[in-house]
Amino acid sequence: MPKVAPAPTSARPTPAPARTGLRHVFPVRADNVAYHPTHSVYPGTDIFADCGEPVVAVTDGQILEVSRVDRFDKRGPLGPYNGGLSVSLLGDDGVRYYGSHLSAIADGIDAGVRVRAGQQLGRLGRTGNANNVCHLHFGLSPKCRGTGDWWIRRGVVWPARYLDSWRKRGNREPAAEVAAWQRVHGCPKAPASTNGASVG
Q1: Are 96 and 157 in contact (CB under 8 A)?
Q2: Closest CA relative to residue 62, chosen from 16, 13, 21, 119
Q3: Which residue of 81, 92, 165, 183 has the smallest Cβ count within 10 Å?
Q4: pLDDT tens digits for 24-66?
Q5: Nearest by Cα to 151 from 33, 23, 77, 42
Q6: Distance, CA of 56 to CA of 18 (rounded, Å)
Q7: Is residue 4 situated within a structural domain?
């Protein structure tokens, strides 16, 4: 009888090989755009533009999650619903791209649908905990559970240098940095307390 190798004991998943050289575009299609290199207490970037401006797919990939209903309530729970209307996309490069606070989701954008770089996903808004200011919360992360892992989906590496590149029509790729983060951190569990957490 052949010997069976023991199952690996590591709780940290190995990131799937990612495609390189994919086209990347800036996630908001607008002339008047502003954003900052840092964001409150975790990596992410808020991209400010006029309400209703198109939000587009950063690269080719498949839609993972779509939230078409704003369930945010400042009484709680804080965290899972702070993004309001949102879309997360698993790029063919293995990176999950997350955008939230949308005012609308485009028709046909549903979990499992394939999209191309530049395809419209929705419109900029102020849903969730956007504090009445129209902006897109933008986060980069690995796909961990795939759905429901808002504490990772909101962002784990700083997006600004990638946004800077894409805004100038460059093609800096975040896949290596996201995969390196996952090799170190795996897929951490949700924070013990989300009270007062700032989650886009």
Answers
A1: no
A2: 119
A3: 183
A4: 999 999 999 999 888 778 899 999 999 999 999 999 999 999 9
A5: 42
A6: 21
A7: no
Instruction: List the beta strands (DSSP E) in the chain.
Output: 34-35, 45-48, 54-56, 61-67, 85-91, 95-102, 104-105, 114-115, 120-123, 135-142
Rounded to 5°, the CA angle 37-66-193 comes to 60
Listed as ranges, residues in the chain with pLDDT below 50 are: 1-15, 194-197
* Token pair of 2 as six digits: 């052949």
Residue 123 has which token pair?
């419109």
Backbone phi and psi for residue 165, each to the nearest 5 degrees, phi listed first:
-65, -50
For the chain, how many structural domains are there in total? 1
Q: Are 83 and 169 in contact (CB under 8 A)?
A: no
The CATH number given to whatever domain includes residue 107 is: 2.70.70.10
